[in-house]
């Protein structure tokens, strides 16, 4: 249960009254009421980045004193408090009983109290696909890399599983002194610690909340060192060095590099092993990391962590990112991997950049062949079959063990395959429930020589290159049905799996990954999320040598580079581009950078037709790709931007109904909520009307960040409505000019009986810049 004082207009309990009711509650509570860890959020500190350690200690003492009034002594409050947030975020995390948490939430000065929730972790060709280099790996003149000086001296950090410092992606060869503004450091006081250098300038870990809620961590593992691989992969994707000869199992040779390859990097380890249903990344640990990163002097934060979206004051990522953006840090977060279902997008706060995942035009192709002569394109990173010959084919259901169900055997779940039936054969398995690589492991344990992995209907056409532990390939749903039919209807079915081969230039690309989470935004549907999509399927990047490429217990291999997929992989691509924009435009706000990325994106693939949805192969929508696929070279010079300040975000909270007293605590500065504020007028680079009533008017303003000129508007009307814009021309005399405009939307048909969404766009152009905004309209009931 979460507690917060939201949308209140009446009187609040005084502290004494709260304590009285708390005492009554405790009197009748069970004697051994279970304590849980909660975050007590109290807003913002005002002492600034140059405050002394004494100021931070004073803030912590105030937290201990505050809690001691509930627990009876400061000693007990010190035992209860896990973290005291003392730099930019004001609050603490503590072990409390539910009644205590509820009473604390009612006190003046407290914005919200919410459980310490666990969350989950959600390249050699990507940058060529995004036109930063040509097909031969040569830098394209005047590209975003060239213009942004490869992100030189931007400080880019991630909140993740840590970093493998020995990776060449983090070598400091050729780097000058660390920027003088940097206040961070590396925790290197153990044998497994992480030493800093001039490239990797920061590495810290945060584990107290995880250890309170899940399990203790062995002392030798309490280090920023990455024993998972996810953090090293995302950080090197964002800002890893140029590393020639990067390869995985001799399949993926090339030069690995990040989006801002000359940026400095820092790692804040907040994610630990997942145990059962407990996620490995806890709000209280993340808030401590956000607080530290702001103070250290980070410029860009990439956060590939997510969970179910929550109210802004009951969400650790939302709170932490607000304080980061308030202090000039651009934050990029993953949309989540719960697609293709609608309304699954996470990290929906309007002050962050939310990223979906799409494909690129490189595949690691491995074909499944059947003796009838047909072959089916699959993807894989596994080795070839012994002898490269045909083997008997059998489905998982046909190899069913005596104590298993046919359905479980079809999925190749552990212990469901009979070795007497599977031995020496290629087993055809259905995707779902357990891991893709785990299915191959189960086939191998049953004596199978290979696996053809077939998509279920939900996964559709999304296929993944995995480093399988057995010769295997992964094919789509339609092809899988043909293979199943062949095996079931043929007396002696035979099959072959070809060795993987790198193929560049595949079409169509990009298309949306089926797993990428979709809108609409379930917290504030008037804000269209996700914002952007970027490559997130089969991405090559540096990896931890403290784990295997699959992370599975039975896999004893280690690699320097690995292929991975997810919105986790898409997010650092965008963060890397943010680093380039920060280098070229150090005066741009986080909102201006987000706008430049969004309004310059594309919605067509390399076939010059609209992007497709990987699950259905139908036309994708802004609920999957946001504004489209990122184009770094266009984002460097967007022409116009939809800018926002901290005051604008506070107006957004006012429009949601948060009261003025609460908002003042949130920002630690006075802010006047106006009565006429509307969510439709938030200066976002996209437009969303979730419950359209027949007519709506929205206001926006754009700032000129290019040459003086005149922009005209073009409109692609969403089916079922008409859109008009006034004025139709905007004239800018100088850089920094801002002009406002009104968008009026009216229904053009009324015979809508079922709920549906319709999509369009408006574009401002001066003939050279194209500033495009997506529109989403919810029609019907």
CATH architecture of the largest domain: 3-Layer(aba) Sandwich
Beta percentage is 15-25%
Give the overall shape, derived from the CA principal axes: globular
* N-C termini distance: 31 Å
> Which spans of ≥5 residues are poorly predicted at pLDDT below 50?
4-33
Radius of gyration, whole Å:
27 Å
Helix content: 10-25%
Number of domains: 4
CATH homologous superfamily of the largest domain - what is it? Answer: Peptidase S8/S53 domain
Q: Quote the CATH topology of the largest domain.
A: Rossmann fold
Question: How many β strands by DSSP?
Answer: 36
- Assign the structural class, choosing from mainly alpha, mainly beta, alpha/beta, alpha+beta, or little secondary structure: alpha/beta
Q: What is the count of helical runs?
A: 20
Average predicted confidence as pLDDT: 89
Largest sheet: 8 strands, mixed
Quick one: CATH class of the largest domain? Alpha Beta
Pfam family, one: PA
Organism: Trapa natans
Family: Belongs to the peptidase S8 family.
Protein name: Subtilisin-like protease SBT5.3
Short description:
The chain is built from 20 helices and 36 strands. The protein is α/β, with parallel strands linked by helices and 781 residues long. Strands 17, 18, 19, 20, 21, 22, 23 and 24 form an 8-stranded mixed β-sheet that branches. Strands 8-11-7-13-15-16-25 form a 7-stranded parallel β-sheet, sandwiched between helices. A 5-stranded antiparallel β-sheet has the order 1-5-2-4-3, with helices on both faces.
């Amino acid at each position: 249960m979460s507690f917060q004082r939201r949308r209140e207009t009446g009187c609040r309990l005084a502290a004494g009254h709260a304590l009285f009711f708390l005492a009554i509650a405790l009197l009748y509570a069970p004697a051994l009421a279970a304590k849980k860890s909660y975050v007590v959020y109290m807003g913002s500190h005002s002492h600034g980045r140059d405050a002394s350690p004494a100021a931070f200690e004073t803030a912590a003492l105030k937290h201990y004193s505050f809690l001691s009034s509930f627990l009876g002594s400061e000693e007990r409050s010190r035992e209860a408090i896990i973290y005291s947030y003392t730099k930019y975020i004001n609050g603490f995390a503590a072990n409390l009983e539910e009644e205590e948490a509820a009473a604390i939430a009612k006190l003046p000065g407290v914005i919200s109290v919410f459980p310490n929730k666990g969350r989950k972790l959600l390249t050699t060709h990507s940058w060529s696909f995004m036109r930063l280099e040509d097909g031969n790996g040569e830098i394209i003149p005047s590209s975003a890399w060239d213009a942004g000086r490869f992100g030189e001296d931007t400080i880019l950090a991630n909140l993740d599983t840590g970093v493998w410092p020995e990776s060449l992606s983090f070598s400091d060869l050729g780097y000058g002194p660390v920027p003088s503004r940097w206040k961070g450091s590396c925790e290197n006081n153990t044998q497994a610690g992480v030493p800093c250098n001039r490239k990797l300038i920061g590495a810290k870990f945060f584990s107290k909340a995880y250890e309170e809620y899940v399990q203790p961590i062995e002392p030798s593992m309490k280090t920023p060192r990455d024993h998972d691989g996810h953090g090293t992969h995302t950080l090197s994707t964002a800002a890893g060095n140029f590393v020639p000869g990067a390869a995985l199992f001799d399949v993926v040779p090339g030069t690995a590099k990040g989006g801002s390859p000359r940026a400095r990097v820092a790692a804040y380890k907040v994610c630990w092993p997942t145990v059962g249903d407990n996620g490995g990344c806890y709000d209280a640990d993340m808030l401590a990391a956000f607080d530290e990163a702001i103070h250290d002097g980070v410029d860009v934060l990439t956060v590939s962590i997510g969970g179910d979206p929550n109210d802004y004051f009951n969400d650790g990522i939302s709170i932490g990112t607000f304080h980061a953006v308030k202090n000039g840090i651009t934050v990029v977060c993953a949309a989540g991997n719960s697609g293709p279902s609608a309304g699954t997008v996470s990290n929906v706060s309007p002050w962050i950049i939310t990223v979906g995942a799409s494909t690129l035009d490189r595949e690691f192709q491995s074909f499944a062949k059947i003796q009838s002569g047909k072959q089916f394109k699959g993807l894989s990173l596994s080795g070839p079959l012994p002898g490269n010959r045909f083997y008997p084919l059998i489905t998982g259901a046909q190899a069913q063990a005596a104590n298993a169900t046919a359905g479980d055997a079809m999925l190749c779940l552990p212990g469901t395959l009979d070795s007497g039936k599977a031995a020496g054969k290629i087993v055809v398995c259905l995707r779902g429930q357990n891991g893709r690589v785990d299915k191959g492991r189960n086939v191998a344990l049953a004596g199978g020589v290979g696996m053809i992995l077939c998509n279920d209907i939900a996964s559709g056409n999304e296929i993944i290159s995995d480093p399988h532990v057995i010769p295997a390939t992964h094919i789509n749903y339609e092809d899988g049905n043909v293979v199943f039919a062949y095996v079931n209807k043929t007396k002696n079915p035979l099959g072959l799996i070809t060795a993987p081969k790198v193929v560049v230039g595949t079409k169509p690309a990009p298309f949306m990954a089926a797993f990428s989470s979709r809108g609409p935004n379930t917290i504030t549907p008037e804000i269209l999320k996700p914002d952007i999509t970027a490559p997130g399927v089969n991405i090559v990047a540096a990896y931890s040598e403290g784990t295997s490429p699959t992370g599975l217990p039975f896999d004893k291999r280690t690699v320097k580079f690995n292929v991975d997929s997810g919105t986790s992989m898409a997010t650092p691509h965008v963060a890397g581009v943010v680093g380039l924009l920060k280098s070229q435009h150090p005066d741009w706000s986080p909102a201006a950078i987000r706008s430049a990325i969004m309004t310059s994106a594309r919605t067509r693939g390399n076939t010059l037709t609209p992007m497709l949805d990987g699950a259905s192969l139908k036309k994708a929508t802004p609920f999957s790709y946001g504004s489209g696929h990122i184009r770094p070279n266009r984002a460097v010079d967007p022409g116009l931007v939809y800018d926002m300040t901290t005051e604008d975000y506070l107006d957004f909270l006012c429009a949601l109904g948060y009261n003025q007293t609460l908002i003042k605590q949130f920002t630690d500065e006075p802010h006047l909520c106006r009565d006429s504020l509307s969510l439709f007028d938030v200066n976002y680079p996209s437009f969303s009307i979730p419950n359209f009533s027949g007519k709506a008017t929205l206001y926006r303003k754009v700032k000129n960040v290019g040459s003086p000129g005149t922009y005209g508007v073009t409109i692609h009307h969403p089916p079922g409505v008409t859109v008009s814009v006034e004025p139709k021309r905007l004239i800018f005399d100088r850089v920094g000019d801002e002009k406002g405009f009104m968008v009026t939307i009216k229904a053009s048909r009324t015979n809508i009986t079922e709920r549906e969404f319709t999509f369009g766009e408006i574009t401002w152009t001066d003939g050279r810049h194209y500033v495009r905004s997506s529109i989403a309209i919810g029609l019907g009931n």
